[in-house]
Each structure stands twice: as structure tokens, then as C-alpha cells.
Design a protein that fits this description.
The chain has about 220 residues and is mainly β. The chain has one domain: Methylamine Dehydrogenase, Chain H, CATH 2.130.10.10. Helices cover about 5% and strands about 55% of the residues. The chain contains 1 helix and 22 strands. A 4-stranded antiparallel beta sheet has the order 1-2-3-4, with no helix packed on it. A 4-stranded antiparallel beta sheet has the order 5-6-7-8, with no helix packed on it. A 4-stranded antiparallel beta sheet has the order 9-10-11-12, with no helix packed on it. A hairpin with a 4-residue loop joins strand 7 and strand 8.
Length: about 220
């Protein structure tokens, strides 16, 4: 699938047949909705110059967009992406996912935080471990079928995390998705979303020229 190579991907999510993506960096952060088949941009909204966009997720028709250092989550109504308010939180924001009723956030550490979509208060903390060791640099998130899938920043790995005990059940390796030439022009893998229409995941990365429809089996990402 085509992907805008100028997009500094921070969050990825499907909603009502469209794929939504947030792009980071100060002064040029934005959120856009695209047709997942044609890659045509259906809607786009710039974020304030003072924020660095991070992960996105949906509760109903409300899109929540966290920010890196600004301690604010912005809300937008779909399908028009009209601004719907903001809430504050402490610390950094990295990845965001939805269970349908709660939001799950990462901050670059080894703990995931469940947050109330009404006031963004923390309702649960889940330390993440692999073989009893903390797993740090948890970044972009997706929740599907009792697992949280997390990009591990600076790597091409995706951790499948059990929501009951925080244990990493599988580590998936996406290092072979881009060609060597493409990888030389791109940044790290980041962005994972479950596509219910395809029954598969879509993954991409910062400044990647392509997105990929993948099936997660074994310890690799199979196209």
C-alpha cells in the first residue's frame, strides 16, 4: 500500500472504513483520514504549532490525540474532524489505543496506563515484562482480541502483550518489510492498526513510502 513518505507517523487507527493517521513534529503536526484502498485523503486537520502529535485512538466517534511533552489530549469529532475540546495529563505521551470503553496509553517507559475517556484519569497500570524483565520504550499501540500490540521504539519489533498480566507473548520482527534502499530513506517502524475489513493488521513507519497488510504468525510479520 502507498504511504506518504513525508508523514512522521505517530498513531494509526481504523474507524468506519477509513484509516486515520497522526503525523508528529512541531509546527507541522496533523491528523488525516484516508481511504485504505485508494490512499486518497478524505479529511485532514492541522494541530496547533505548539504541540507534537503522538498516538491516536477512538471511543465512539471521538478521536483522541495525545501529545508528546505538552500534557494535553486533543479531541476531534468524526467524520469531519471538528475540534471537540482538550484534557490535561502529567508526563509524556507516546502511544494510544482503545478497548472501546477505555483508552490505553504508553509514555516510553515499561508501563501501560488505562485512562478514563471522560477526564483522562488513570484507572489501571500494567507493567510490561518479557521473561520477567521490564520492556521499555513502548510506543504506538493497538488493542485487539485481548492483546495490546506495541511498537518498541528504535527497533522493528512489535510486542504482543497480554492485557491480564502484562507479559509479552510474542515478539514480531518487521525488519524485512522495506527494501534496503527504502529503509535507508526511512525512519523507525511505527504505526499498527487492526483492519476489521481485511481481518489483518496494517503497519507502517515514520517516513515510510509504504504501508503493509500483515498477518502475525510465529515471530515475523508475514505479508
Amino acid at each position: 500500500m502507498e504511504h506518504d513518505p513525508s508523514c512522521f507517523t505517530q498513531g494509526l487507527a481504523f474507524h468506519d472504513g477509513l484509516i486515520y493517521e497522526s503525523s508528529g513534529r512541531y509546527g507541522i503536526s496533523y491528523i488525516e483520514a484516508r481511504d485504505p484502498v485508494t490512499s486518497e485523503v478524505v479529511n485532514s486537520v492541522p494541530l496547533p504549532d505548539t504541540v507534537f502529535a503522538e498516538g491516536i485512538a477512538f471511543i465512539g466517534d471521538t478521536l483522541y490525540a495525545i501529545t508528546w511533552l505538552e500534557g494535553v489530549v486533543l479531541m476531534y469529532r468524526t467524520p469531519g474532524l471538528e475540534y471537540a475540546g482538550a484534557m490535561e495529563y502529567s508526563g509524556q505521551g507516546w502511544g494510544l489505543a482503545s478497548t472501546g470503553s477505555s483508552l490505553i496509553m504508553s509514555n516510553g517507559g515499561d508501563t501501560l496506563f488505562w485512562r478514563d475517556p471522560q477526564d483522562f484519569s488513570i484507572t489501571k497500570r500494567l507493567p510490561v515484562t518479557l521473561d520477567c524483565h521490564p520492556v521499555r520504550l513502548l510506543n504506538e499501540l493497538e488493542h485487539h482480541d485481548g492483546l495490546i500490540y506495541a511498537n518498541l521504539w528504535t527497533t522493528s519489533l512489535v510486542a504482543a502483550i497480554d492485557t491480564l498480566d502484562g507479559a509479552v507473548r510474542v515478539l514480531y520482527d518487521g525488519s524485512g518489510l522495506l527494501t534496503p534502499a527504502e529503509a535507508g530513506e526511512a525512519d523507525v517502524m511505527n504505526g499498527i492498526a487492526w483492519d476489521p475489513a481485511r481481518g489483518a493488521f496494517v503497519v507502517t513507519g515514520k517516513l515510510w513510502p509504504r504501508s503493509f497488510v500483515v498477518v502475525m504468525e510465529g515471530a515475523s510479520l508475514d505479508e
